[in-house]
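ZP: hey, is the zinc ion complex queued? I don't see it on the tracker
AM: it wasn't, my bad. submitting now with these inputs:
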Amino acid sequence: MINVYEYIKNTIVSLMPSEAQITKIELEGPEIAVYVKNVEAVIKSSDVIKKIAKTIKKRVVIRTDPSVRKSEKQTREIITKIIPKEADIRSIEFDHTLGEIVIKTAKPGLVIGKGGNLLRKILLETGWRPNIVRAPPKETKTLTSVLQVLLAKSEYRLNVLRSVGHRIHRSPLFKSTYVRITALGGFREVGRTAILVETAESKVLLDVGLNPGAASPINAYPRFDLADFDITSLDAVVITHAHLDHCGLAPYLFKYGYEGPIYTTKATRDLMVLMLQDLLEIAERENKYIPYSIREVRKTLLHTIPLNYGEVTDIAPDIRVTLYNAGHILGSAMVHLHIGEGLHNIVFTGDFKYCRTRLLPRANDRFPRVETLIMESTYGTDYLPPRDEAERELISKVKKIIEKKGKALIPVFAVGRGQEVMLVLINGINKGLLPKVPIYVDGMIDEVTSIHAVYPELLSEEVKESIYRGENPFEAEYIKKVEHRDERRAIVDSDEPAIILATSGMLTGGPSVEYLKMMARDEENALIFVSYQVEGTLGRKIKDGQREIVTFTPEGKIEVLKIKLKVFSIEGFSGHSDRRQLLSFLNNISPKPERVILIHGEESKVLALANTVRRMGFEVHAPRIMDSLRVA
Ligand code: ZN
Ligand code: ZN
């Protein structure tokens, strides 16, 4: 049997020019890190890295031996000389473990230079590998603390990467002869998405969510209690996006012994940290039980290995993952798994939008190969109105409320709908379709919006271009951030009409519920739903006609609050594909899968969609939770 690590080392040593002076070769997660004393020799023979990567089919990163790194002081001076002043560098931080510097700048393009020439210059002259981070227009607590934690725990992270690297590159004991998929959560329901993919050699978990509407843990968490499921034996976890029904239980894995990696995009990593922290804060305030603490959230961050769209990455001896844009929320991904050198290919769509939105480009539909497609079915039987129609309806509803001096409460997910609706309202006001009234933004929306501005390359052409021009498309003088809870009463009591965007999007807690309680009695006010309401949530109940809420008075007495405000629901803003888009995705996806497995939809919708998809000629499955299916 060949030793994979030995083979990699020998190949690199034989291909690398000897002047490079290799000092060590390490496995760092899915990447191979080559430490050299003479980085110039590597850069000079420009295609040597490509050649190595092609030969060993791995991503290679060149690091410098600590002995050739300049001091912090010298490095800062050199960078000041190399980088033009207009780049507006905000900070330079040193990661001594990895030999990297994190440069935070308002204008990344000016630091990177043409074809990356300035980055190469920095590496050559200082011995430090530059890592560029875009500074947001407004500082965000989340990004600052993510960066701080990553830098402070760099050594811990390197150890994680090394052990992950050795696990990925272990010599396989078994040849991959089968692939099995087990439905742990999110099948014939919306919420707690979790899919186990197993081969003879490896186990990978796709998403690890919780169900926001479930009353008991047995329905709220994926079924990790299955007899043959063992958290510690997982090779990897891949997370499609930062909504809690896909990532909300990631920290739980670490509480129960998981020490492996979480693969996701950088944007999802940042948003996920924010969402998980917020979940814990709200749970504490509202006395709800969450089966982990902030310690495990931090561990989730430290074990996350960020991937770019389109980057092919080994995550187990016989499994490669590639992420593709899903068009659902910032950083959302479709997951492509290539298993056993051609044995089988799986695409999991996650939540996806097969249509351009104001915020994001349309989901990807081109894959290298796919035999099994696991597709979401949220709107499996529903046709949503076109987006421009939805926009017109929102504008006209809000306008009527404002003209009668009422207030419009729009519960939104902090991530996705919040920004989309903001863009629609800003556009409406700019075009004079809507009077200029204050738009109050409450909950984490503002923080999340700032995170969007850090990843313009992931956003729609229009928004991206505006950020590249140095504008902030999410800002206007009438957008007002609600800083403290005590401000809410004054906003509701004021005579001025207003629009209020508040989390949570399904009235499961947080400011939107507080506003609703304060606004419910006044029939001039309106509650406008713009997103999907999961069964069991207060949002769904009100949408379905419930007009009372049970609350507690400040004295602790139970009170039944009659809902008199108007309730509207505007379909069409959803970040999910509707029936038409799901079917058109199936028509366009290339290559055509043999088999379609439906997930993430209420039972009746999944079953109805299954019938249609079967008639299109696909083999279709609608597994129940705890079902397993052999796909190869
Ligand atoms: Zn989602
Ligand atoms: Zn979802």
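AM: back. Residues 241, 243, 328, 351 surround zinc ion (ligand 1) (CB under 6 Å).
ZP: great, adding it to the tracker
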